[in-house]
Design goal:
- It is a single chain.
- By secondary structure, the protein is mostly beta strands.
- It has one domain: Glycosyl hydrolase domain, family 43 (Tachylectin-2, Chain A).
- 11% of the residues lie in helices and 32% in strands.
- It is built from 4 helices and 21 strands.
- It has helices spanning 5-21, 26-43, 61-66, 415-419; strands at residues 84-87, 100-103, 109-111, 114-123, 149-156, 162-169, 181-190, 193-201, 214-219, 227-230, 248-255, 258-267, 278-286, 294-295, 310-314, 316-321, 330-334, 341-345, 354-355, 367-377, 389-398.
- The strands form 4 sheets. Strands 1, 15, 16, 17, 18, 19, 20 and 21 form an 8-stranded antiparallel beta sheet that branches.
- 3,6-anhydro-alpha-L-galactopyranose is lined by residues 104, 146, 183-184, 199, 210, 248-249, 264, 306-307, 352.
- Residues 104, 146, 183-184, 199, 210, 248-249, 264, 306-307, 352 line the site of 3,6-anhydro-alpha-L-galactopyranose.
Length: 432
């Protein structure tokens, strides 16, 4: 109940007078003390100076929640940031004709003064014909942007200018798993060796859905050569389980002495009704990079998000949740890598983000966050010439920095950016 200050004064005097009259026995004293407490709980007005702690009087649901975030003011929230993007130097896209695509970058790693990044590269004679025409795909014609791909790698001294070094993982001969396409890699460093996890397709994606499991290869050096280490390392769920058809976007972190590998699966679709789909993230844990990986019994540990972007933060794990689900466009945090809560709501988050976090594999128990990483844009080309580009993002999701520029809250676009999201007249009853 909210009272205007004047009424509040009368109401409190009335309660105080009441307590004098009733103070002859101790039971009444208790009652009056309780009433006073109720009165003070009910009638305090939210102060002008923002309290550091949750105030001990009734609050609206929104004011209550405010104190459940890492900081009540978003600008002070270590898990809030703006994201700014930079075009990379050093990559050629064949004039943007849709025949060359780079996407789904790994998290960069720094080895002997050089950053390494791994990514999906398509270099085909023609652009992809599209998900819906997957039946027409051949060994020269890709269905989707990530069909007929290999995993390439590039190095950089500054994270912005990159030198493409060559293929890291080539798709193997048919019928070996991944013969159709290998895509969406991520890297793990474990006991001095390097491990690449990636999606291995045995059919053009789109044929029955986006069906593929994860394979792994390992090397002594980030430049390879890579040795095949196993297929289907995160097994599909049983038929009827949410991850029955796919384990995508593998992303390993070293946490609590083990390998925590997050992955994505789309579900609630048969046989891939795209407008009914839902996306979840699972967690699979192993003591050895080649497995066996055991799925967490609470999977999916995230019910929002698309590509996985997880990172050690303080003594837990945080993530950037994008695109899908009720909680898309948030940063989330869990103390145990399993039970995530919203820590902030964000704008323009990196798509398929791979942060550069030096403590990704060190299991420090005190994750520091990060200030930059790699991401992609999937709509770089004209319609029918689809291709993707990799870009760099900068941010301040770091405990070691406080970059004011990234703690602002307004994201101001030119009107053209909004008008580019033109309504499709046929789908809207009030547009003719
Ligand atoms: C992505 C990822 C996976 C999907 C496809 C390629 O961005 O979620 O990798 O399979 O799209």
């Amino acid at each position: 109940m909210q009272l205007k200050p004047l009424y509040k004064h009368y109401f409190l005097s009335f309660l105080l007078a009441g307590s004098f009259i009733a103070c002859s026995d101790s039971k009444s004293v208790k009652t009056s003390a309780a009433s006073e407490e109720t009165a003070s709980k009910e009638h305090q007005v939210f102060p002008h100076k923002l309290p550091a702690e949750k105030p001990n009087f009734p609050l609206s649901a929104s004011a209550e929640r405010m104190f459940d975030y890492p900081a009540p003011r978003v600008q002070d929230n270590e898990l809030y940031s703006l994201f700014k993007y930079t075009e990379l130097k050093g990559f050629d896209y064949n004039g943007g004709d849709g025949t060359v695509s780079r996407r789904d970058p790994s998290r960069p790693i720094l080895v002997d003064g050089k950053y390494y990044m791994y990514y999906t590269k398509r270099d085909t004679k023609v652009p992809p014909i599209g998900w819906n025409r997957a039946k027409e795909a051949t060994d020269k014609i890709p269905s989707t942007d990530w069909d007929l791909c290999d995993i390439w790698y590039a190095t950089s001294e500054d994270g912005t200018t990159w030198k493409e070094e060559g293929i890291a993982i080539k798709r193997p001969e048919k019928p070996n798993p991944g013969w159709r396409s290998v895509a969406t890699p991520d890297i793990l460093i474990w006991k001095g060796k390097y491990y690449l996890y990636y999606q291995a397709f045995d059919e053009p994606s789109g044929l029955r859905g986006d069906w593929c499991p994860v394979s792994v290869s390992y090397a002594d050096s980030p430049a390879g050569p890579w040795t095949h280490g196993g297929d289907a390392v995160i097994p599909f769920g049983e038929k009827g389980e949410w991850d029955q058809d796919a384990t995508h976007d593998p992303q390993p972190i070293v946490y609590n002495g083990k390998i925590y590998l997050y992955y994505k699966a789309a579900y609630n679709k048969w046989t891939d009704i795209r407008d009914k789909y839902a996306v979840g993230h699972g967690l699979a844990i192993a003591e050895d990079p080649l497995g066996p990986f055991e799925k967490h019994p609470l999977n999916p540990v995230m019910t929002s998000g698309h590509e996985t972007t997880y990172f050690p933060f303080k003594d837990g794990i945080a993530n950037i949740t994008i695109k899908d689900g009720n909680e898309r466009e948030t940063v989330q945090y869990s103390k145990d890598g399993v039970n995530f809560e919203i820590a902030s709501v964000i704008s323009l988050p990196p798509i398929a983000g791979g942060p550069y976090a030096p403590d990704m594999f060190t299991d420090s128990g005190n994750g520091r966050g990060f200030t930059w990483g790699m991401s992609h844009f999937i709509n770089a080309g004209e319609p029918k010439k689809q291709y993707s580009i990799i870009a760099r993002f900068d941010c301040d999701l770091s405990l070691d920095h406080d970059i004011q520029e990234y703690k602002k809250t307004g994201v101001w676009h030119k009107p053209e950016v909004y008008f580019a999201q033109a309504p499709n007249k046929s789908g809207h009853p009030e547009r003719r």
